[in-house]
Amino acid sequence: MTWQEYCFFSSCFKPDIVPNPDQKKSISSWKHSSFRRISLSDLSSSTLSEDLSVSLAGSNLHVFTLQELKVITQNFSSSNFLGEGGFGPVHKGFIDDRMRPGLKAQPVAVKLLDLDGSQGHREWLTEVIFLGQLRHAHLVKLIGYCCEEEHRLLVYEYMPRGSLENQLFRRFSVSLPWSTRMKIALGAAKGLAFLHEAEKPVIYRDFKASNILLDSDYTAKLSDFGLAKDGPEGDDTHVSTRVMGTQGYAAPEYIMTGHLTAASDVYSFGVLLLELLTGRKSVDKSRPYREQNLAEWARPTLKNPRKLNRVMDPRLEGQYPEIGAQKAAAIAYQCLSHRPKLRPTMSEVIKVLEPLKDLDDTQSGTFVYVSTDSEFPRETKRKKEMKKENGQFHHRHKLHDGHKNKSRSFKSPVVFTETAIQQNLG
Predict the structure, then answer these.
(1) Does 178 fall in a domain?
(2) Is the four-CA dihedral 85, 89, 95, 101 of positive or negative sign?
């Protein structure tokens, strides 16, 4: 359906079609008791002409006028410009406590649909329907929307640190420490798990660094639900749809067949976890040809701890726990499996990532420290004495300054198979 066709029947205000009694009943039951989430497929063309504030009764969404949004963004001033994506430009605004009863004073982000952009009314409506009903600590909060004539706007909570993409890849940005990276990965994983395990599952379909927003303490929240789809129900194993998403993140089986499952999101999460580990973009045309696709280049090294340090982000300067990096790499390897059934669920990913954020950033093999004899266990002391007797013991300084940024080599190579990784993580 074209944008012009949507404009023909999608007036959001002053509905001239009254919902049928059954529909009113379902809306009322949703508002006052447990409910089955409505989806885009539940709405007919006639429903689209109704006031969305009625269709989404109980969602606590506020309906703003275009004039109100012009006021709070200072007429979409360039000084308030935050960025622009496929949907359109985003501006910062401020709502005072006099605008709406029950709406507290707060900064907001206002996203304006670009009528000449790659997205349209369907993506706008999808976002309103999903975020109008879904609430979670790791999903960005939709405060309200505006639908006047051809204008389509969305009003979100303001996320002060912007997108993960900017924090991770922006030139001259401060490098994120290990604990912060794992906190972000864990938060994003929890957001995906919530969607996948909902009573009516949701497939996010566009999981990427630019769609993960960060609040002041780096809590990650998923945003931009314009491409989200309801997951398969009943005996269905997948959702068939045209291939959408972002190059470098999309699962290979989805690209080839158009079959969409929760495992498609898991693959995308694996790519994002690689970005956090390596500091590289999912696709980077400026690199040598074999290194341009991050998943293809890095995945073979993830199952061998001896090679892992070669792909870790140099901006971490070795300040990460080796065992933590190995566990994160192992779960990323599983997420990136070319066999969807071998990929973990997001709940399984969470179990692996949960303890990693609390590991000390300095527990890396790059730091060499030799303790006094009294601090060694007895068995270790005996080994040292044996070495002395054999003339094999050499005294080392506490810190080898010239080598403090080189990783410790392993005594023997360890190579994980996918099955072994699953057993190890279990």
Answers:
(1) yes
(2) negative
If DSSP codes are grouped into helix, strand and coil, which group holds residue 77? Answer: coil
Report the Cα–Cα distance between both ends of the chain, in Å, rounded: 47
Tens of pLDDT, residue by residue over 216-236, are 999 999 998 888 888 777 666
β-bridge mates for residue 110, sequence order: 91, 155
Average pLDDT, integer, range 357-369: 59
The 10 Å CB-count burial string (b at 16+, else e) for 319-343 is bbbbebbbbbbbbbbbbbbeebeeb
Give the integer Cα–Cα distance in Å for 103 and 87: 26
Tell me the backbone φ, ψ of residue 61, rounded to 5 degrees.
-80, 145
Q: What is the mean pLDDT of the chain?
A: 78
In a domain, 408, yes or no: no
Give the containing element (helix H, strand E) for 196: helix 178-196
Asked if residue 161 lies in contact with residue 183, where contact means CB atoms within 8 angstroms, the answer is no
Helix (H) or strand (E) holding 262: helix 262-278
Note down the domain range covering 420.
164-363+414-425
401 a catalytic residue: no
Which pLDDT score is estimated for 300? 92
Task: Please tell me the total count of domains within the chain.
Answer: 3
pLDDT band at residue 10, thresholds of 50, 70 and 90? very low
Q: Is residue 29 part of a domain?
A: no
Confidence band of 378 (pLDDT split at 50, 70, 90): very low
Q: Are residues 139 and 217 in the same domain?
A: no
pTM of the model: 0.76
Given a contact cutoff of 8 angstroms between Cβ atoms, the answer to whether 152 and 124 are in contact is yes
Residues 184 and 304 in one domain: yes
Cα separation, 383 vs 186, in Å, equals 41
121 and 139, same domain (yes or no): yes
Q: At which of 157, 173, 206 does a domain end? A: 157
Q: Catalytic: which of 206, 224, 265, 313?
A: 206
What span, in angstroms and rounded, lies between the C-alpha atoms of 31 and 329? 44
